Each structure stands twice: as C-alpha cells, then as structure tokens.
Amino acid sequence: MYPVPVSSSDQRESPQVFEQQPGQITTAQFACRFFEVLTFIPRCILATITDMAIAAFCLLPLGCFLGRVDYNPKHLDPKKPHVLMIHGFLNNHTAFGFVRCLFQKAANLFAYNNDDGIFYNDLRKSIQDYTDSLKPKIAEIRMKAELAAKQNNTKKQGIHIIGHSLGGAIALALAAEDSEIQELTLITPLVRGSIVASCLSICLPFQLMKDMSANSPFFQNMLQRLKVRMEKHPLKIHLINSSVDLLIGPENARLPLDMRNIPGSLVQETRHHFFGHVGMLFSAAMCSLHALFAKRPQEVA
C-alpha cells in the first residue's frame, strides 16, 4: 500500500508568532498612554489635595505630639535586618508611622530627627551637613548590630536605609561615601533636586535651598561619586516614585540612564500614577515593599 497524501488543508497550522518591531507600540500600550495623558491634570490635582490633607490632618498632629518620642529599639534582634529611616524636608521621624507599623516585626527600625526642632530644618546648613550628622548614628547602629551578633553567635546584618524626599538625597550621599551600605529604598527622593526648591531659592537664598534646587552642584557631584562607588562596590537601589509628584518633578526622582545598568549593581524602579509626594508614604506601595522586604534572605554587611 502507498501512503495517502495529506492535503495542506488537513495539516495542522503552526501558531504564528508576531514580534513587536522596535519603536512600534501595541493598541493596549497606546490606550494606556492615552489614558495617562488624558487624566494627568486630574491626577495631579487629586495627588496635591491628598498630600495637603495628609500633611495637615496626619503628619502635623502626630509630629507635634510624638516628634520627640524615641521609638528606636533598645535591644536588637540579630536575625532581623537593621533599617535606618531618614525623613524629608520640614518633617520628623513620625512621617514613617505607617511604614513603622508595617516593618515593626520584620526589622530593627531606627529613625532620627534631622534637626533638634520639630518640623524644622536649618536652611543655613547644607545637605552634606545633614549627611555628616547621621554618620555617628550609623556607626552606633553597626556597633549594636555587631554586639548582638556576637552574643547570639549569628551573622552580622547589614544596614538598609529608607529615605523619603530630602532623606533620599541624604541616603544617596551616605551610600556614595560608605561602601558598607549595600541597599537603599528611596521613596519620592530628591535624586536630581526639586523644581519647587529651584523657585524658592530665588527668594530664600540659603544654602539648603540652593543644594535642593534641580541639578544643583551638590547633586551633580554626589551622582558622580555615587556612580564611581557603584562601579567598584555593588549597591541595590529600589526607587519608588510618582508621575504626579509636582514638588520634585517626575524625572528629578530618577537616576540618570547611565547609572541604571551598572554591572554588579541593581536599580529597580516602581512608578505610581495616583499617589503624590507625601501620599506615597501611606500608599499600597509600602505594603508591597514590606512583602518583598520581609522575605529577603539574611545578608552580611
């Protein structure tokens, strides 16, 4: 018997794979971008109103009553990572109240006021001055961590720094100088300055306002030093920013393109479209960050 020929119509067709050409966008991507542009102004207004409400009805009352309370742990759990939280401009450590509630059982949390006063920043100081003021605190945390590790015969845990707004700039400056800092989480940070500070520096010509201005000499120098450090010593940076952050400017909260793909270092960015500069501290982004943070393996500094 001879084999019966099978017509092409009877053959099962192989699935076709459509590859997206460079520069070409799909219908879904176009719809998403169109929605973002269409709703940009309403989202900015909503985020700004939310930021003002949180500052007036949450941060201000809590800061006045609890701004001088020391919540730092007296005894460290050697099995938990050590987290230093650095708050932003005109704020205090109570800004991390929601974050503290989430992370309390997952880490040893430390937070200090940048200045002695509540809701106060000395405009005569520079960002470098605030950076230098935290170095003794970091040395103290390391000493306590090393002592706790020796007493419990466990590995020493490194310090994870969480910085918000101006605190993000301070965290980057610390990492640029300290190679033992291996991981940062930056929430709507000043990576390249603030557009609002640029405007305010005209009528408030103080050093801090000049440093906080967009693309100021401080940020240019700090990013150069940070790039050199990331090339020599690996650093993990988790950026959480917002497309509707009008205080900083969306692009000013992002690292330059040449610093996002440095071999050995890791830069992860999460961008949100509905939370503003202050509202991000109370958003679902903190919950997702906690989920990742609580599951991370233990590391040695």
Overview of this structure, please?
α3 links the parallel β1 and β2 (108-111). Strands 2-1-3-4-5-6 form a 6-stranded parallel beta sheet. The longest helix is centred in the first third of the chain and has 27 residues, at 40-66. The protein has helices spanning 27-38, 40-66, 97-103, 127-152, 166-177, 195-203, 207-212, 217-232, 284-295, and strands at residues 82-86, 108-111, 159-164, 183-187, 236-242, 266-272. The model is unreliable at 1-20 and 297-301 (pLDDT under 50). The protein is 42% helix and 11% strand. The protein has 301 residues and is α/β, with parallel strands linked by helices. α3 runs parallel beside α9 (284-295), α4 (127-152) packs across α5 (166-177) and α5 (166-177) packs across α8 (217-232). It contains 9 helices and 6 strands.
Q: What is shown here, in short?
A:
By secondary structure, this protein is an alpha/beta fold. It is built from 9 helices and 6 strands; from the N terminus they run ααβαβαβαβαααββα.
Q: What's the mean pLDDT score? A: 84
How many beta-strand runs?
A: 6
Largest β-sheet summary: 6 strands, parallel
Broad structural category: alpha/beta
Model regions low in confidence, pLDDT < 50 over at least 5 residues: 1-20, 297-301
Percent of sequence in beta strands: 5-15%
Round the Cα radius of gyration to an integer and report it: 23 Å
Series of secondary-structure elements, N-terminal to C-terminal: HHEHEHEHEHHHEEH
Structure annotation, total helices: 9
Shape: globular
First CA to last CA: what distance?
A: 76 Å
Helix content: 40-55%
Strand order of the largest sheet: 2-1-3-4-5-6
